[in-house]
Amino acid sequence: MNKKSFNFEAYFCNPVTLEGGWDIKMISVFAETKIQAKEILKKVPYFDCIILFNYEVPMNDADVKVYENGTNYRILEYINGYFQ
Q1: Average pLDDT over every residue of 64-80
Q2: pLDDT tens digits for 45-65?
Q3: Alpha carbon distances (Å) from 71 to 20, 43, 74
Q4: Looking at residue 54, what DSSP letter applies?
Q5: Is residue 35 helix, strand or coil?
Q6: Which of 26, 46, 51, 75 counts the most CB atoms within 10 A of its CB?
Q7: Nearest 5 degrees, angle CA 12-CA 68-CA 28?
C-alpha cells in the first residue's frame, strides 16, 4: 500500500500543566490507513483528542505542508520510507 496524508483537527494539552483542550492544531499524519493514522496521532506529544477528520491525500515524493490553526505552515521535506 502507498502512504497517504491524513489531516485532522485535534486538541493538544498544555505542555506545562497538562490541561486538556488547551490548543487546537491542524495536523497531517502519514500512514497507509486512517485507522493507522489515528494510532500514530495518539503518540504525538501532548495530544489530547481528535476534533474532526478533514481529508486524505495520496503521497508521492514531494514536499509536505503542515498547517497550524489553518494559517501558518512550515515545509518539511518528504523522504521515502521516513514516515512509518
Answers
A1: 42
A2: 899 999 999 989 887 644 445
A3: 23, 24, 10
A4: E
A5: helix
A6: 26
A7: 80
